[in-house]
Design goal:
Helix content is 48%, strand content 20%. With 269 residues, it is α/β, with parallel strands linked by helices. The chain is globular and about 60 Å long.
């Protein structure tokens, strides 16, 4: 972690976690890696091997770094991070996912859809689906497009944030409506795949944050300043091949899951 922090000179702690998450071969070896990295940064700050920047406590740098070098790097990087972190990439990903399912042969509701659910006690729920398909499968897909967030199972968080609360509600409501709920996002923790099982849900971990083609300069700035190459542009008319492949595999994923469940049931009799 300190090696990466020295390489960055100064960076937001989310950037430090992303670099460790992506490029240090830790994802397959550390459970709940995003949370572990958060705790490790806090411990390093407490011990004094990392320091928080006086202008923004979310930014960190290594003990012993020259103050002038830290100040110059922060001045250069802060604007890029602000443009990146405030970018609203969600609507763009929604369009990419809808087009990917259209190319996979699905009937897709244009622009998502607002649905109303009334439970057995008569309480009404109004909810916006980012992606809603009607055939051959009825899917309700939520799209999250912040590279700096890794979605962890809401069940293991003692204080889930608004995003995690909304995702738990999404899976609960869609399952109640008879839709197959899903999440498409750049980064999804392994624990989330356990969370979706009771809902017969789906999760697609893209590993990339896809922005509109007009954002190529921002992508270049992120690569240059933070050494992260997983922020790229994609056209709404030509969704990324990995997303199209996943949309085409969805029916097979669900059929395979059903077959395994039936095998397990027959084996337990």
């Amino acid at each position: 972690m300190l090696k990466e922090a020295r390489k960055q000179v100064v960076c937001h702690e989310r950037v430090l976690k992303l670099r460790l998450y992506y490029y240090y071969n830790l994802r397959g070896r550390v459970d709940s890696l995003w949370m572990e990295l958060h705790d490790a940064i806090g411990e390093a700050v407490d011990e004094g091997s990392l320091h928080r920047h006086s202008a923004d406590k979310g930014w960190v740098y290594c003990d012993g770094c020259a103050p002038g070098e830290v100040a110059e790097a922060y001045e250069r990087k802060a604007g890029v991070y602000s443009r990146w972190s405030h970018h609203d990439g969600g609507p763009h990903l929604e369009k990419l996912v809808r087009e990917a399912f259209r190319q996979a042969g699905y009937v897709v509701v244009s622009g998502g859809s607002r649905v109303n659910w009334r439970d057995e006690e008569g309480a009404s729920e109004d909810y916006q689906l980012d992606v809603h398909t009607l055939a051959p499968l009825r899917l309700g897909i939520e799209c999250k497009n912040k590279l700096s967030d890794v979605y962890i199972s809401p069940d293991i968080l003692s204080r889930p944030n608004d995003d995690h609360k909304q995702l738990a509600r999404h899976f609960r409501l869609c399952h109640g409506w008879g839709l197959i709920p899903g999440l498409v996002a750049p980064l999804i923790d392994a624990s989330f795949f356990g969370f979706i099982q009771p809902f017969d849900g789906l999760a697609c971990r893209l590993l990339f944050q896809y922005l509109p083609t007009s954002n190529e300069e921002l992508c270049k700035d992120v690569r240059r300043e933070f050494l992260i190459g997983h922020v790229v542009t994609a056209s709404e008319d030509d969704p990324p091949p990995n997303l199209v492949r996943w949309a085409r595999r969805v029916s097979g994923i669900l059929e395979g899951r059903s077959a395994r469940d039936q095998t397990a049931e027959s084996g337990s009799v």
